[in-house]
Amino acid sequence: MKLFRFDPAPVPVNGARRMRAIATGVLIVMALTFAISRSFAHVHPAIGYVQAFAEAAMVGGLADWFAVTALFRHPLGLPIPHTAIIPRNKDRIGDTLAAFLRDNFLTSAVVARRMRRVDVASAAGRFLSQPAAGDGRLRQGASRLAANLLEALDEERLGGMVKGAIAQRLRALNIGPLVGQALEAAMRDGRHAPVLDGIVRWAGRTLEANDHLIREMVHARAGKVLRWTGLDENVANAIISGLQKLLDDMAEDPGHPLRAKAEEGLQKLAFDLQFDPDMQARVAKIRDEIVENPAMQRWIGGLWEQGRAGLLRAARDPSGAMAGRFGEALRQLGGTLQDDGQLRAVLNRFARRTAVGATAAYGDNIVKLVSETVRGWDAITVTSRLENAVGRDLQYIRINGTLVGGLVGLALHAVDTLL
């Protein structure tokens, strides 16, 4: 799939055509002057100087016309060797240009050296802290470009890529040690105690709300004698009372033995989460099941939709994006970038490494793009546009050649006359 289509940009041709007509006109004038002066050479000796000037100018103009024309096409359509140089060597020119770019611009050393002179962080800081002082047209143009790019990209494919990347990052996260470290830190600071208290209170409320289940279980398991004497109800009451007292004691006594056992179990869990491969594997399996859950996938999709919508809103209304709390946060970030030299150095180093890395990763592709693009151009079109692009200077060469040739002929005629 072609992402870009690059065609040679059209260039103004009126100036080049006008100069070509002038150069040709000068040559024709010299030819007419030569013919007229040759016819009237017997009238006066001074006409010989005019004839010599016109003759040499005509020769010089023709020579330069041939040289200039030979660059772009066969003179008069004749297949003269070593003419039409640019059309014949179009592919080689593209390869040479690509090699020139690679050797002189797209090398890591050159990019790193150039990037050392660019203070990206300060420029970003100035723009963020004073966005109104920037070039409005540049900002609006960049905003329109960003919005157009976001809208032009395949939403489903791009969204799938983004959601896939988020899911992949979640799957790559080794969550076991993180949970273990968090649990260990919470127990070290005593932040787990309210959780245990909440669990104990929840257990007490659950027991109170479901005591009939215990009574039914005791009644079902009791013998006929216990049911006939009603002792099964006493046993059930004793069990419920004992459990309730146990829970009350655990809630009131932070040093209760069962709470100590629970804390011991939590400490072991924190250790296993950090260092036991089997426990980490079980946690990873749970993590993968959560990521694959349709509800989780919908949540990730919602993140992408919200992010894309926010980017589009900011791109379509850059002034609005810089307003409110978000804009204030960006302005504060801009001020920090301008004031904090260490942060600027870190960001500039990151920008430099990013540019160098992009050059190393994609430099060959850029070179290949240049070479293949030039190869794909039509030779006649490229030749015509290149000739028009530099045509004014080329026609000045023809005019100068005509005048210089005339002056040389005039000087040689003068020397010949004196001798």
Alpha-beta content class: mainly alpha
Amount of beta strand:
under 5%
Gyration radius over CA: 44 Å
Counting DSSP H or I runs of 4 or more residues, the number of helices is: 21
Largest sheet: none
Q: Rough shape?
A: rod-shaped
The helix-strand sequence is: HHHHHHHHHHHHHHHHHHHHH
* Average pLDDT for all residues: 77
Low-confidence stretches: 1-12
For the record, give the distance between the C-alpha atoms at the N and C termini, rounded to a whole number: 76 Å
What is the share of helical residues? over 70%
Number of strands: 0
What can be said about this structure in brief?
By secondary structure, the protein is an all-alpha fold. The chain has 21 helices and no strands.
Compile the SSE list and pairings.
Elements: H1 14-39, H2 46-72, H3 85-88, H4 90-104, H5 108-116, H6 120-129, H7 136-152, H8 155-172, H9 175-188, H10 193-209, H11 211-221, H12 224-229, H13 231-252, H14 257-275, H15 277-292, H16 294-316, H17 318-321, H18 324-339, H19 341-376, H20 379-389, H21 391-418
Question: Any overview of this molecule?
Answer:
The protein has 419 residues and is mainly alpha-helical. The chain is 83% helix and 0% strand. The protein is built from 21 helices and no strands. The protein has helices at 14-39, 46-72, 85-88, 90-104, 108-116, 120-129, 136-152, 155-172, 175-188, 193-209, 211-221, 224-229, 231-252, 257-275, 277-292, 294-316, 318-321, 324-339, 341-376, 379-389, 391-418. Helix 5 packs across helix 19 (341-376). The longest helix has 36 residues, at 341-376. The protein is rod-shaped, with a radius of gyration of 44 Å. It starts with 13 loop residues before the first helix and ends with a helix. The model is unreliable at 1-12 (pLDDT under 50).
